[in-house]
Amino acid sequence: MDNTIDLIWASDHRGLELKEKLMEWICPIDSDREGPFPVAVMRDTGTYTSARCDYPNEVKKFAKEFDIYKHGILICGSGFGVSIAANRFKNIRALPCRTVKEVQMARRHNNMNVLCLGSDFTTFNNAKRLIKAFFETEFEKGRHQTRVNMLKE
Q: What is the pLDDT of residues 11-55, one digit of tens each?
């Protein structure tokens, strides 16, 4: 079984700083240090500047490419806007999480595949803990798979 992680990111202008710090932590650039996870592919669909932008547009770019990824992370000020926008797209199950327990439950019971973070509510260190739980928590399947399948109807 391949344990590598593929990951796609997006943020609006309010989530940009946290996104850039987290991307550098996961895949260090110009460093001898290895990242904390076996990331095989990482894609950032934007935004790339601090200029004001609208999260629905950033999520739309993200969603157009999401189908080839297993993990996604979206960041805005609250995490709520990107979650609402992302869940409009097929096969995306996005939830804003603030605690490790929320991430674990969302992964185990809902097979969450897009973690939404609120930069106004999530410190860099807490975001690292949330992402670790996101990558390490497995979907329990069983009765939960039946429910997830119902979302496709």
A: 999 999 999 999 999 998 877 788 999 999 999 999 999 999 999
Please, what are the domains in the chain?
Answer: 5-150 (3.40.1400.10)
The one catalytic residue in 13, 27, 53, 76 is: 76
Residue 48, helix vs strand vs coil: coil
Active site residue 109: yes
Encode pLDDT of 86-138 as tens digits: 999 999 999 999 999 999 999 999 999 999 999 999 999 999 999 999 999 99
Q: Determine the Cα–Cα distance for residues 129 and 115; give it in Å rounded to an integer.
A: 12
Sequence-ordered list of residues with C-beta below 8 angstroms from that of 3, at least 6 positions apart, any chain? 38
**What CA–CA distances, in Å, run from 132 to 35, 44, 135?**
12, 19, 5
Considering 27, 53, 109, 144, which one is annotated as catalytic?
Answer: 109
Say whether 76 is catalytic.
yes
